[in-house]
Amino acid sequence: MRVVFTTWAWPSHLYALVPLARACRAAGHEVLLASEPGLTRDVLRADLPVAVVGTDVDTAGMVQEYLLPLPDAAGPAPKRDGKGPRALRMLTAHAESMTADLIRLITDWQADLVVYDQVTLAGPVAAAVTGVPAVRQLYGFDLLQRARGVLPDALAPLADRFGAGPVDPFGAATVDPVPASVQLPGVQRVLPMRYVPYNGPETSPWQPPGPRSRPRVCVSWGHTIAKVDPSRFLAGRMAAAFAGTGMDVVLAVSAAQRDLLAELPENVRVVVDTPLRNVLRDCDAFIGHGGAGGILTALAHGLPMLLVPQLPDHAGHTGRVAAGDAASVLSMAELTPTAVREEVRRLLDAPEPRRAAGELREEMLGRPAPAVVAGALAELRPSFVRH
């Protein structure tokens, strides 16, 4: 079987696809990862074959329009274009960029199946045009359920242009790595999958900090916020809040983020380009911005977390995990060093957050491994499989 995996050029969306793509290759299937030019290096570093489709879109510029307002913000709210969710313009811009090339790739490579990141809507359109099944993979909580009523109409002009007719943006099935107890209701035709953290390649041996006698907290701020607005990259500020507290802090950043850090207390250790999955093995709690990858990686380690969302989708992710009692959430208006310390101390001392995070970890471990899901994909529509 030949499988095209596709996402637009954003590392965290690629990272969600990597474990299943690798499982398909291990099962003997041919795999190709199709994305815009800006993701090529990240795909190759994930040891996956890559095909370039479309052109790069100014994702960071668009995301700037969706930042949640700061508590002291003055002036009118950002303008909204069109109807429906604000991010719809970004989703359709990527679909416009990628669809024509993706159709050619599927046809020329004779693909049997398309697996698409949940927001990469070129996937279901191109699959419909070429007559192959399309499977949606979630990178986190299924926030697009809220747009179910407007997505088909938003895709209709693009689908009509290529002669696809009506397109189901939710695919023939949905691969879902999120524990069912905290996932949004309404996800249909689910292929549950165990979340296997991939947060980037291993670039050097991980050196565990060694034995310890006091709590250790990890702070990480993902990839998105620093690209969109460096002034909102709060990882260093969050780590500095623990000066003189008797806690150890591991601050996980990328090489591009290192220069955004000011002077830090002695109890803060900075690690650069180290996958989050490695850092969290030796920690007791996680502090992040509410991205789905960080949340699910923390849950995979059974860690309670403090989250500070700055984008609407981050607010959606944090709301779900907070409802499951595994996280505390602070808004930007509530964000003070004292509040950060108090919330983290509560996460460490109160039994409920750790119990809830541990139960979600066990729920994740009970789901089928990516290798099992790879087998299910091969059986999904056997009449389409040519190889």
Question: What overall form do the CA principal axes indicate?
Answer: globular
Describe the sheet with the most strands: 7 strands, parallel
Tally of helical segments: 14
Low-confidence stretches: 74-84, 383-387
Overall mean pLDDT: 92
Number of strands: 13
This entry's quaternary arrangement is single chain
Radius of gyration: 21 Å
**Strand and helix order:** EHEHEHHEHEHEEEHHEEHEHEHEHHH
Q: What structural class is derived from the secondary structure elements?
A: alpha/beta
What is the strand and helix layout of this fold?
Elements: E1 2-6, H1 11-26, E2 30-35, H2 40-45, E3 50-52, H3 59-64, H4 88-109, E4 113-117, H5 122-130, E5 134-137, H6 151-161, E6 173-176, E7 190-192, E8 216-220, H7 224-228, H8 235-240, E9 248-253, E10 268-272, H9 276-279, E11 285-288, H10 292-300, E12 305-307, H11 312-323, E13 327-329, H12 337-349, H13 351-365, H14 370-380
Parallel strand pairs: 1-2, 1-4, 2-3, 4-5, 5-6, 6-7, 8-9, 8-11, 9-10, 11-12, 12-13
